[in-house]
């Protein structure tokens, strides 16, 4: 009697462990969707990284331009101060 019960339990367990073709197809579809989402995430990361790099490069260009303007302004200011000193000394 116990043998029959054990065989019945094992049969049920084996049947439950086997996925139906529909379940396999559903799992495969979900796996494919998850893979597609991961690929989209990778592409999004790469795209946003390229944009961020471009912004940083542009910022470097802007910073370099600003620094050049400051240096030019300081040089002109220094020249004007020297000229003012020379005018005062001419009194």
Notes on the protein architecture:
By secondary structure, this protein is mainly α. It has one domain. It is built from 2 helices and no strands. The chain is rod-shaped, with a radius of gyration of 38 Å. The model has no long low-confidence stretch (mean pLDDT 88).
Helicity range: over 70%
Overall residue-averaged pLDDT value: 88
* Gap between N and C termini: 127 Å
Order of helices and strands: HH
Low-pLDDT runs: none
Rounded to an integer, what's the Rg over CA atoms? Answer: 38 Å
Please tag this protein with its features:
91 residues; 2 helices; rod-shaped; single chain; mainly alpha
Write the layout of secondary structure elements.
Blueprint: H1 2-17, H2 21-89
Summarize the structure.
With about 90 residues, the chain is an all-alpha fold.
